[in-house]
């Protein structure tokens, strides 16, 4: 879809016309909805709503996958009416995206209520029956969602959680008020604006040239190893966090690093995962695991990692009581980081 739009050209300040791509049109539309409360309210009339209860998304099962249904405003009003809730609850919804046809998408938590009414949290089983789905913890469902639903629900959950936790101004103690889109909250008594926050986290795959270093925390599912991860401390650059985390967790000094990709991650409460490859000097590879942070860490060969990446299915205990070595699923950025390392190693070992 191409639209023609006036664009003010900086130097001569005349209007020129060029087609805007669907992506640009969509981005500008979302920007307008965040800035203009009336436009956003209007967009709710034709929009669609993802539903949550106590931060668990409403999901339906289809062929071993979960699907996230969307509901129209009319359907939502009918549902709220049926369970004795005020249609004003819709004001608690947050904008999370839109379709290419500019259908705005919102998320609403039926179990969290900005007016702290407990009536909102009852009726969960009845709502599930009515909605022909279940409210399932995102941690349990994330890897059985398609990439788009996973991304939408992750964004929605992080934003709903942020609003729930920022109901009051930390300076005046007064209730804060969200804008219609939910892109900010304002304290009416002092006009302080609060914006949703996320925590930057680095995730680093350390290599010594032929092997890569993987670790596990005791909270990980049995047998699963991942790259080293850590929150950025205040005042640190991404590079400094990587050097510190690798030193802190496995006692090694990083020699060089290279950016790979980034990902929004909804856990523990909305992180920006920044994934990098790092190398250590070949002679300096002796790991000293920090047991306060990790259960264990070890070097793995290319073949071991390549085999684990191909492994599919569930990971049941073996006869000797151990669990097979496996890696995070595709949707996690650690998977992408490890896969990229395996591919690079494969290319560099090919004869020239
Ligand atoms: N998407 C992916 O592929 C992966 C994501 N992760 C995520 O990375 C996150 C960080 O990894 P960890 O090794 O646990 O970090 P970490 O090595 O920094 O240790 C966690 C500790 O850092 C402290 N901390 C500092 N700032 C924090 C903040 N803003 N929020 C929470 N705790 C903070 C707490 O004491 C916490 O116990 C995990 O929560 C996990 O969700 C981890 C591995 C893979
Ligand atoms: Mg860590």
Automatic annotation (TrEMBL):
Domain Nudix hydrolase per the UniProt entry, residue ranges: 196-323
GO cellular component terms, semicolon-separated: mitochondrion
Protein's cellular compartments? Mitochondrion
EC number(s) per entry: 3.6.1.22
Q: Which UniProt keywords apply?
A: Hydrolase, Magnesium, Manganese, Metal-binding, Mitochondrion, NAD, NADP, Transit peptide
Required co-factors: Mn(2+); Mg(2+)
One family name in Pfam for this protein? NUDIX
Q: Which GO terms describe its molecular function?
A: metal ion binding; pyrophosphatase activity
The entry's function note states: NAD(P)H pyrophosphatase that hydrolyzes NADH into NMNH and AMP, and NADPH into NMNH and 2',5'-ADP. Has a marked preference for the reduced pyridine nucleotides. Does not show activity toward NAD-capped RNAs; the NAD-cap is an atypical cap present at the 5'-end of some RNAs.
Family membership, please give it: Belongs to the Nudix hydrolase family.
Q: What is this protein called?
A: NAD(P)H pyrophosphatase NUDT13, mitochondrial
What species is this protein from?
A: Piliocolobus tephrosceles (Ugandan red Colobus)
